[in-house]
Amino acid sequence: EVDGRRTAFDELTTLLGQLGPPPEEAMSRDKVSSTSGRSDSTASRFDDYMRRNAKVNTDAVRSKNVFYLGSGHSRAKRPVFYWVSRHFKKDLMDQDTVMYHVMLTLKSKLGSPFELVLDMSQFSRSNEPHMEWVYRIVTTLPPSAVDNLAAVYVYCPNSLTRQYAKRVQRVVMGSKVHKKIIFCDGVASISQYIDGDALKLPEQTLQMEENLQLFPNCHAVISQKSVACTLRLGSDMLQVVSNDKHKIFGLPATIVDMFLFREMAQVVKTDGSSFAIKSNHGHLQFSCPEVLKVMAMIQSAKVRWERLKPDKRSERKIRPNDVPGTLLNMALLNLGSSDSALRVAAYNLLYAVTVAFNFGSEGQLLEANGLCIPANNTNFVINISAKLSQTESHLTLEYLNECLIGFSKSTNELKHLCLEYMAPWLPNLAAFCRPTADGQPAKVEKVLESISMLIDMTCSEREMYPSFQSKVWNTLGGVDEMIELLLDTFIRTAVESGVGSARAEILADTTVTLAAANVDLVSGKLVARLRKIIEASSSPATADGGGAGSAAGGASSASASGPSSSSSSSSSSSSSA
Known about the structure:
Blueprint: H1 2-19, H2 24-32, H3 37-52, H4 59-63, E1 67-73, E2 79-84, H5 95-107, E3 114-119, H6 131-140, H7 143-148, E4 149-155, H8 159-174, E5 181-184, H9 187-190, H10 203-207, E6 213-222, E7 225-233, E8 237-242, E9 246-248, E10 251-253, E11 256-260, E12 264-269, E13 274-279, E14 282-287, H11 291-308, H12 323-334, H13 340-356, H14 378-391, H15 396-408, H16 412-422, H17 444-460, H18 465-477, H19 480-497, H20 502-517, H21 519-537, H22 546-576
Helix pairs in contact: 6-8, 12-13, 12-15, 14-16, 15-16, 15-17, 16-18, 17-19, 18-20, 19-20, 19-21, 20-21
């Protein structure tokens, strides 16, 4: 094998000797074009890349609006391209197809000056292009692309943008693009270069600056360091804007970190003017002179988002154990329909369900062929439901869930019927708050889901409000085992909604309904909670007896003030709770 290689090498050497030196014309041409040889090579590489990918379908990428040409022009009369970083999902999109889409979109404008906007708002780890991909784009684009790129506007860079910039700094600095970068922290700053009507950022990006309330002189704890910032509260997010400039590619930039309210699990006041947020991004700490106002606005925005968020119940998957409850509710609900044919079909479905799942109907139901089911059958429906609630109590959670879903999609007449036949099942919830006899764990979380749905409907269904109080909460108030859980849920929901909010007032009214059905138990638990709050917030006794004297003075004052003072204090404490 070695001898064969030597033979081939010898033959090649002989052939080169026979050809002789290259012609002088070719050598002079190479010298003249030596400065542009790399450019020609890159241009041919770009043409070859476009030719090889000519049959690639980019419709899916185009529909995501990751990269596109805006319809307007900059103030310098140049076309503007937009890259929306949060629309790029590196793990869900084919990066080769994205790259070809970028090249294809740019191709028609490479011969003349153009500008580029990088929308970095809400940039995250999932939006980071791979280093290899960035290098391929830079090396594949023809030199005319870099030469004609007049400006790069980086819109609302966040802390992750700064970190990612350090990783791609060598590639960017080597291409000289960094000299054309301009950082913008909002619409006002980018409007200096692109007029508002010509700015074609996504609507979601533009909405981030609508109805903002500013809170200056704040501090955020980042990497255990206190950083001066301004808080901007919008309709769906908290924006943290750095007061000091940070270096990105050697240029000063304002950092804008954004945190969605829906990703915040808890907002807690720590001490003085400080508060903390537990979110998907970890534990965030802030200090602000108007801490109470900021926290109240965040809590209010969280509640508002909870009310407006898409109803996941419409997207749910029906499990096998949901089938009996689903069919049973379907039959009972449609028995109240004004359509006689639908009532007959619902009655036959009810009969089929009781037979198929061996419900204890004891001959009360027979298949109806050619019969008329009267419209005034409310008592029949309630009696059947009440009996099944006793014999088939294991279906309670699934059945109540189906009732509430059907309730939200029904007419007012059927909503009243739904509450009537749902009420007998409510006391069964207590059985799911404790372990079963065979050692199965309690299903408290599912019970809490049902209670939360009932609270949401009580607050949103204003026309049905009296019916909810009498049929739902009055019934649950009579179940001793449910009182503690109900009060916990009411207080937590009221605090999250904010003191004095409509939701908190409705829950206070509902607590009265619970007490009407179980006065001693409800009032006893509320008073016990108030005593714990008072004990926890009282000042400890001092060594010189000052604390005791103060306590005695307080007792004397309370005694002198009489019943009216006591009543006022209880009312105030109840409101705070």
